[in-house]
Amino acid sequence: MKIAVCIAHVPDTATRVRIGSDGRSIDPTGVTYVLNPYDEFAVEEAIATREKWGGEVVAFCIGGPDTEPTIRKVLAMGADRAVRIEGDTEDTLVAARWLAEAIREEAPDIVFVGKETVSFNGAAMAAALGELLGWPNASIVVRLELDGQKAIYEREVEGGKEVGQIMLPCVISCQRGLNNPRLPKLPDIMKAKQKPIAVRRPAAVEAGVETVRLELPPPKKGCRFVNSAEELVRLLHEEAGVI
Amino acid sequence: MAQQAVATRPFTGVDYYQLDALLSEEERMIRDTVREWISERVVPIIDQYAQEARFPLHLIPEMAQLGILGANLPEEYGCAGLNSVAYGLIMQELERGDSAIRSFASVQGSLVMYPIFRYGSEEQKRYWLPRLARGEAIGCFGLTEPDYGSNPGGMITRARREGNSWVLNGAKMWITNGSIADVAVVWAKDEEGQIRGFLVEKGTPGFSAPEMKNKWSLRASVTSELIFEDCRIPLENELPHARGLKAPLSCLTQARYGIAWGAIGAAMDCYDVALRYARERIQFDRPIASFQLIQEKLVFMLTEITKAQLLAWRLGRMKDEGTMSHTHVSLAKRNNVAMALEVARTARQILGANGIMGEYPIMRHMMNLESVITYEGTHEIHTLILGEDITGIPAFK
Ligand SMILES: Cc1cc2nc3c(=O)[nH]c(=O)nc-3n(C[C@H](O)[C@H](O)[C@H](O)COP(=O)(O)OP(=O)(O)OC[C@H]3O[C@@H](n4cnc5c(N)ncnc54)[C@H](O)[C@@H]3O)c2cc1C
Fold first, then answer.
1. Known catalytic membership, residue B376
2. A187 touches chain B (CB under 8 A)
3. Which ipTM value was assigned to this complex?
4. What share of chain A is helix, strand, coil (3-state, %, to 5)?
5. CA-to-CA distance for B387 and B392, rounded, in angstroms?
6. Across the interface, do A76 and B80 touch by the CB < 8 Å criterion?
7. Nearest CA of chain A to the CA of B14: how many Å?
8. How confident is the model at residue B5 (pLDDT cuts 50, 70, 90)?
């Protein structure tokens, strides 16, 4: 079985993000970048699938050479090789076109992506990839059982869960709970150095979406301790005006 | 592992002098992997284990799985084959969790696997090293005796040859992992007074390892006595290439090297917690971090940690180049552990009363470091080792 997994290199949510001088991008100085946390579930599922069914895991990542530590981490976790798409875009559709183009050449049986990136929170990649590849997709999947040409999935829906069947090849977006992502073994970190990362130049695609401005959330007001329930009710009514 | 990331305490490592640039990408990834493991698996539970004076045994297979045990020994014996800097960074991260976790790994790797690797027969290596690396066997190292600590050359434990056996008599004390060990590396004198190393397996008649209770330091580590009463072991359990005090001392050099890094981990944790606390704790209507006296403490900690990092990094590169001597290790162990203890005490003050609580790691690190400054050569003994090296005059007695 050939398994594809799409990975993103994103700012760690624990680092303090500053907006760059252009007002529409993140200032990268002092920011640590990590593998997108939801992609960890995708990578784990890809590797576990290969461990069960055999085959190969190929990771796909859009970005410059600075994304290589993240790609190496995925190789250390167990992916067999990687394709880095030399490009930079904030338009999901452009990213999906680039990824679809690269994935189509590999003709995998299944594609795993994270539910969303923690940087842009678009949550549209699985649908866009499915559409472009002409394959069915299931998003926000929390359980998956492969069975030859099809898979049974469980996904989160508002207030409950949905169980469905999906034909391969397909695109699956992975949500927390699907699995327990492994840490790379230390000797595998050394071996990841030898695994190949192919670099490809994507076709020029006009972006349809562009960020105009980024804003930080207003600073938190801090918390106040009150001494009694009566006082709390009075403040909620008189000051906050919520009751 | 994204999923528990929220449940655990945040931690930012210290890198004020951009020392990360001196590390390879693999060395950084190894450090970050162990850091993540510590955050997820050790930080949430370690206070309880320390309070209850228990070692978290369930972490041993996880450490083994990651490749932590004997990580700098070669792959042909089932180890990770990492370089010395990577090994040091692992020790640093383990000790950020707790000195007990680092002590476990130091003893297993540097004091049990290393002597078997360096002084053992090929059969001993093939039999023990993969098992110890997989965590299926636990080891301990018995050198110190009730009456011989800083002066191990005076040891009383004796090994007598009788036919196809060695017969051991004597007692060791303060032995980390003793009661949980499957194999003890024991140092004893033969009838000619020559020090030799022996592998004594758990369950051998005449061998017992009662735990030493009621410690106020390294509470999450097992410390034991080893007692040998006509304990008979086969001849092939002797380490054939170890002769004289320099054999156990060479193992201590390995372990002390790891401690020089480990201490930085404990210090970074104390600093990180103290910095966060100082920014948030309000007194006299202002965060205590705004007071000059507090800033001075924080700056002191940062400076000392940065200096210690440089020492450890250089020591590691020298070790890999083959230019490191045991006196270099003494300097780094001596400095870095004393530094960490001072940082822990300073952090404790910044946290005020909260500093003594188990909810914060400070007091636990501080008490642990009281052992770390004593074991593996006391602070004073390292002073004398360096003093002799620079003056040419031994001042031990
Ligand atoms: C938690 C813990 C775990 C340990 N684990 C192990 C283990 O796994 N294996 C093992 O073999 N040992 C272990 N040890 C023992 C440790 O190595 C010894 O405690 C250490 O070597 C010091 O010996 P001592 O305690 O007998 O102190 P002593 O040697 O009695 O020293 C007492 C004091 O006198 C000072 N002193 C001694 N000689 C001189 C001198 N010539 N000049 C100036 N000052 C001097 C010392 O620095 C110290 O301050 C452990 C100890 C602890 C606390």
1. yes
2. yes
3. 0.89
4. 30, 30, 40
5. 8
6. no
7. 13
8. very low
